[in-house]
Amino acid sequence: MPMKRHLLYLVLAAPFVVMAAPLQCDIGPITKVFGSVPWLLYSCDDGKSLVVVSAPGSPAAPFYFFFSPEGRGYHLRGEGTGSKPLTDAAYMELEVLSNKDITDLVGQTIAIRKDATKR
To answer: Distance from CA of residue 71 to its chain's centroid?
Structure first.
């Protein structure tokens, strides 16, 4: 658990994230496959942003993508030093996600949190 929080705080400290208040992105995770490798998806406390983090032990690690709301859609950014062919393949799959796809993924991460609190 501490490693998860450490990684997420590093993601949020990235210089390209410019906001009035820092986001906390620890809702989830759900696991999805992009570019043929697993990724952990976390949503943020704004209820809109989504972080896609390479799974532990993945050849795509360390790498993350960040979907941030922008205008009527989302902006996708990525950073890391994982396998370039794998992260490029994941990027190609992520960049074609629709706004609805992204909001559905955010909803899935929120549902995981709600399920965990019921136990």
So the answer is: 19
